[in-house]
Amino acid sequence: MGLEIIEEYKKKLGLTTAELAERSGVPKGTLDKILSGVTKDPKLETLKAIARVLGLSLDDFDDTIEDSTNIINSYKDLLTVYTRSKNNLSQAEKMKLAQIILSDDEEEG
């Protein structure tokens, strides 16, 4: 299920978009964009605020949100590992890491 769950639960609870905005602290304009599909990938903090008001968890939203969170966590893990080990890496090893990262970016673009 995707972000349409917001509209579904908003109706179940008898909330208007303005009421959801007020209770969640998310600007009404932002909610309008999410509900209309203009914003397809809202910020995690925005979704948390909406979910709290609707009695939902982030797991109730689209799988792509979980994927985004995993990417963020993976990136943080990578930074942690690199930061802890950078003094033990040779210049050649650092260059190899840079090449790997850049080659992945070029393939996607």
UniProtKB/TrEMBL annotation:
Top-level division of the source organism's lineage: Bacteria
Coiled coil: none
InterPro entries the UniProt entry points to: Cro/C1-type_HTH (IPR001387), Lambda_DNA-bd_dom_sf (IPR010982)
GO molecular function, one term: DNA binding
Alphabetical list of Pfam families matching this protein: HTH_3
Domain HTH cro/C1-type residues, every copy: 6-61
Protein name: Helix-turn-helix
Species annotation: Anaerosporobacter mobilis DSM 15930
